[in-house]
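Hi R.,

Here's the input for the cytidine-5'-triphosphate complex you asked about:
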Amino acid sequence: MSILSGKNVLLGVTAGIAAYKAAFLVRLFVKKGAQVKVVMTPSAKEFVTPLTLSTLSKNEVFSSFTNEEDDNAQWNNHVELGLWADLFVIAPATANTLSKMAHGTSDNLLLATYLSAKCPVYYAPAMDLDMYKHPSTTATFEKLDSFRNIQIPAEEGELASGLSGKGRMAEPEHIISFIENHLLQQMPLQGKKMLVTAGPTYEAIDPVRFIGNHSSGKMGYAVAEAAAKLGSEVFLVSGPVNISLENSRVKIIPVTSAKDMYEAAHTYFPTCDIAVLSAAVADYRPKQVASEKIKKNDSSLTLELEKTQDILKSLGEIKKHQFLVGFALETQNELENAKSKLKKKNLDLIVLNSLKDKGAGFKADTNKVTLINKDNKVQRFAVKPKTEVANDILQYIIENIDA
Ligand code: CTP
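And here is the predicted structure with cytidine-5'-triphosphate in place:
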């Protein structure tokens, strides 16, 4: 899956001959799973028709502040367009538009949108070679650089003038891969590998019964998905849960028992940089697993239980460079218990949730956590959706992983 999937891409088209390639660009963005809206300068319509771009993008194309040909003319809100966009890609970007961008001129909808947009702005210059080399253009690029706009370098080749040199707009495929690579590099967990454990474990009593718990796995899955979105490759060792997660960066390793989870966690941990163990692992399992279904012959039944291995503790014992995060679910003396677990299991961070807190716990979509680090620094958070809690945890990891 492309990093562009699900992103709102606003494509700005200006009046250069390369505008005809905007049609290919729209198609490629759509193929990558992005939503595309197009804003054009009025003169760009001479090079490529709005109908072509609206058909390919499946969205209305904007080119003026009002739809002047329409009797029920509507105000096209540049602020809304700018805020809608996750990325603003101006391609082709003519010398004229680039210079106006550098100077804050906003005499058309595209430029007003540029001034309103808060998202990253990419631009693909397209001009003749002498225009490209002109000191004024160099000054424009420097100015746009200082605005943190990102240039997609022009390419060398034959130009519309018949001359040959640098100034051609980058080919649509190159624009797409440039943006994909750039976005990936911006991701704080790019290049990292993370192990996440999630969900309950089931400890067999006989072929049809087990000892389990109410863990839904939502917290661990939220951490896995958020980490993948931040660029990490994730190994999600999951007990039996009812959640589906499709992300090409998340490899799900389904397990059932604490023993399976222990083995899978130890398989992936050595190559990982980060491990977040959120699973509610059974602490005990039946010592004997009956090979046949146990009949109800007696008035009572006693099961002898034995301890399972503490996965988190075992990883704390072998960890080298890894940043190790555990959870603590407590009902009393929360802080003290969490701090002692952090020490005992050699963790870098422990995420405490108290069953006493409203909105925290196993099945809810929300959680209320307190983060405690190795130096006993305590950071309390409000009740939030688990997806946001996941981001709070990851933010802490990102800020501290290489420290
Ligand atoms: N954990 C684990 N393996 C186990 C038990 C727990 O990896 N066999 C991990 C959990 O995933 C969690 C952390 O240890 O990250 C703490 O789990 P918790 O149940 O709060 O604590 P325990 O260590 O089991 O201690 P106790 O039940 O006595 O509070």
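One thing worth noting: Residues 193-283+305-400 form a domain with the Rossmann fold fold (CATH 3.40.50.10300).

Cheers,
M.
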